[in-house]
Amino acid sequence: MSEANSAVSDIRRATIDRITGETSISLTLTIDGSGQADVQTGIGFLDHMLTLWARHGLFDLTVRAHGDLHVDEHHTAEDVCICLGRAIDQALGARAGIVRTAHSFVPMDEALALVAIDLGGRPYCVVQADFVTPRAGQLGTDLIPHLFESIAFNGRFNLHAQVLYGRNDHHKIEALFKACGRALDAATRIEPRLGGAVPSTKGVL
């Protein structure tokens, strides 16, 4: 097994290459992008969610993933989100000058989701969402909380996500990913009034 990471902090971009006995993943993320996404994981619904996450967060995202889908989708989806979290962490570097905390409410037809984020370097994740179907496309709905956990813990940030109400599981999950993208976009923005300072009374994140 091997894993290689590289980041270019001045343009807030990171590339993660991860190879295990279960998956092979290459992921590149640009924080200050324009919402361009090229995602190929072999899991159509996950491709859809990550593409709209990037579009609504105005991130540029490229993903190439090959995994043991003959077993099930768990390893591939999990490892892609591990890589995404690590890319967020590396692209942000010391996190100097960022807004740090933000939230977003996003409706999707009858569903409404809230995501709140604190990029303070402390990993934690709470997901409150109930699903009525076992799968959305090729992705098990029981995996959704775990995917957000994988992003948050590897990205070293607090992520609280909640579906306030809704009927259709596709709409609920889509609202969550859109809200996550928009909240991250707001939290990662540079605040000029900070003058490049770390947004913490501790002086470090």
Beta-strand content estimate: 25-35%
Question: What gap, in angstroms, lies between the N and C termini?
Answer: 30 Å
The shape is: globular
Helix content: 25-40%
The averaged pLDDT comes out at: 94
- What value does the Rg take, in angstroms? 16 Å
DSSP summary, beta strand count: 11
For the largest sheet, list the strands in their spatial order. 1-2-3-5-4
**How many alpha or pi helices?**
4
Low-confidence stretches: 4-9
Helix/strand order: EEEEHEHEEEEEHEH
Q: What class, by secondary structure content?
A: alpha+beta
The major β-sheet equals: 5 strands, mixed
Task: Walk me through the structure.
The structure is a single chain. This protein is of the alpha+beta class. 32% of the residues lie in helices and 33% in strands. It contains 4 helices and 11 strands; from the N terminus they run ββββαβαβββββαβα. α1 runs parallel beside α4 and α2 (74-92) packs parallel to α3 (144-155). It is globular. The two termini are 30 Å apart.
